Amino acid sequence: MEAIIRIEKASKCINRGRPNEIWPVKDVSLQILRGEVVVLKGPSGSGKTSLLSLIGCMSRPTEGRILIHGRDVAKLPERFLTDIRRRLFGFIFQQFNLIQGITVRENIMLPLYPTERSFRDMKDRAEELMESLGIIERQHFRVKGLSGGEQQRVAIARALINDPEVVLADEPTAHLDTKLSKDLIEILRKLKGEGKTIVIATHDPLVYEQDIIDRIIEMRDGRIR
Amino acid sequence: MIKHLKILEFAISSLWRRKFKNLGIIFVFSLIIFVLSSILLLTYSFKKEAIAVLEGAPELIVQRISAGRHALMPVEYMKKVEKIPGVGAVIPRLWGYYYDISTGGNYTVMAEYSGLKDLVNIMEGGFTGEKGTCIIGKGISDARFAGIGSIIPIIGADGKVRKLKTAGIFTDESRIITNDLIIVTPDDFRDIFNLPDNMVTDIVVQVYNPTEVDNVARKIKKILPDTRPITKNEILRTYDTLFDWRSGMVLTMFLGAILAFIILAWDKATGLSAEERHEIGILKAIGWETSDVMELKFWEGLVISSLSFLTGLIGGYVHIFFFGASVFSPALKGWSVIFPEFHLMPYINPYQIVVLLFMTVIPYMAATIVPSWKAAITDPDVVMRG
Ligand SMILES: Nc1ncnc2c1ncn2[C@@H]1O[C@H](COP(=O)(O)OP(=O)(O)OP(=O)(O)O)[C@@H](O)[C@H]1O
Ligand SMILES: [Mg+2]
User: Fold this and answer.
1) B220 and B273 inside one domain
2) Looking at the 3D structure of chain B, how many domains does it have?
């Protein structure tokens, strides 16, 4: 199997040289293969979110290399990173990170605004996703009033609108009850069936004990074991 | 192309989402533009009017001064002036003010003289030179509903009423100069104001060579020490400094408003809220480029500043030309000597408007864009952690 993402001895340092210097990710090497479902597992503060943002080109490593399709992106200009983010990745954030004041549909279409895709096209794609995630009746609601489970589906739809190869999910069940968590697993299963590569950061057994998980990477203090 | 439209659409929807905050900014911004543009429009129109009035004015006028006040001038003075080398014709003028009780208006009454002929083509009807007739300005004709042939009653110095027949009315184009003017024959003038035959109000001195005007004025002052020669250039210069938009009071008001604007811009620059920073982080994280975020902020700034600029400018225009600068009137009391009533014509100096645009819209745009740019160039994951 071909590796989509390869991380070589990557470290991330925050506040370097200052008294509050920390290394959320330390000397991590791993690779993620096409079509794989990988879990990053570890206690709170172990660096799961930080590693996930390195994988997704949301931040740059202080040391080491990140190879996407064999190309080192760590030193690429910001513009290229954004472009890779937009074409390759769909993010489901720990805190959802939806824009509260706008509607469900607008939130979902937001990644496609700075592209040449027509409004109609965007709308059709958004509706298709809302349909499959069961939030179509909520499309004109503001996000503010939605339940946690609904907000999460909006976040998932937004992550999928650009049809990404890789879906990155950070603590996707953190705000969900057991029933909703199981629904989420079903959504992930379906995505896996569509051939998507999925990386999930979680410490929820309900997630990492599922049969869809191909591999578990354990983290502690920024390192993997 | 579609991309820019979509970003613009999102900018407008974002502004609408924070409508109270943004309406507040638009309100303050418009208010400042309103004050600034009012000042500019007012001073510029004042200046234009003053200059328009003077354009048709004679190069050199000589008045007699007695006890520091303008006094009637004996006709003998004319002969003495005529003898000065370089002087062409010396034309006597008769004019004065008349308070009309029935309309409450202050008219300028002037006897017809040769220099007035220039105005013939800007009136309907015409000079007949007949005793008992008059030409009136548009303002008087409007106030009295008077047309050609209407009778204008004038109470003379003896308390008796003279009935003057309207022979002509000045048209609108000359309104600045002729609005409250009544032209009568010299005989009627002397009769109304009980003026002795050997006295005139002042004299217009024609000088062959325009560069000699100042020279001639000096000579007149020497020969006739109790006179005051007034040259047109001198008045023009005075008006110029009085109404120049860079001068004294105007500058003070202008700077005050600019200062207020800087405070607004500064507040905006430093006040990128946590919510806005978070939003920028989200946009970056879901694949917006820094330049896309900048474009969004650019549209937001442009919509706000152009809306405010237009509102303020239109407000200023209406304020000055429809409401006679009512907000400023306490500060402008002194100027009413020159324009007893505001009949300002709308004059706009495009250069000043462009300067105003650059001094406000550009700093505002910079103040909106720069902090957003700072938020947008940091890694999205840092922005989102707050
Ligand atoms: N930008 C930052 N500023 C300050 N501290 C940071 C930053 N990024 C990461 N950290 C710190 O690095 C460590 C790892 O953080 P990270 O969010 O990656 O952990 P996590 O495994 O996702 O934890 P959780 O399960 O609670 O989400 C934490 O101690 C965190 O406080
Ligand atoms: Mg985390």
Assistant:
1) no
2) 2
- The question of ipTM being above 0.90 is answered as no
On whether any CB of chain B is under 8 Å from the CB of A216, the answer is no
pLDDT of residue B116: 67
Q: Which CATH number characterizes residue A85's domain?
A: 3.40.50.300
Query: Ligand 2 centroid to A49 CA: how many Å?
Result: 4
Count how many pairs of residues, chain A against chain B, have C-beta atoms within 8 Å. Answer: 80
Domain span at B174: 60-230
Give residue B336's pLDDT: 39
Residue of B nearest to A55 (CA): B381
B264 and B289 fall within a common domain: yes
User: Which residues of chain B have a CB within 8 Å of the CB of A101?
Assistant: 17-18
Quick check: B289 and A114 CB within 8 A?
yes
Q: Model confidence over B160-169: pLDDT tens digits?
A: 999 999 988 8
3-state secondary structure chain B: CHHHHHHHHHHHHHHHHCHHHHHHHHHHHHHHHHHHHHHHHHHHHHHHHHHHHHHCCCCEEEEEEECCEEECEECHHHHHHHCCCCEEEEEEECEEEEEECCCCEEEEEEECCHHHHHHHHHEEECCCCCCCEEEECHHHHHHHCCCCCCEEEEECCCCCEEEEEEEEEECHHHHHHHCCEEEECHHHHHHHHCCCCCEECEEEEEECCHHHHHHHHHHHHHHCCCEEEEEHHHHHHHHHHHHCCCCHHHHHHHHHHHHHHHHHHHHHHHCCCHHHHHHHHHHHHCCCCHHHHHHHHHHHHHHHHHHHHHHHHHHHHHHHHCCCCCCCCCCCHHHHHCCCCCCCCCCCCHHHHHHHHHHHHHHHHHHHHHHHHHHHHCCHHHHHHC
pLDDT digits (tens, 9 = 90+) for B95-135: 998 988 888 778 889 898 776 666 555 677 777 778 899 98
Give the ligand 1 atom nearest the CA of B381: 1
| Same domain for B103 and B31 | no
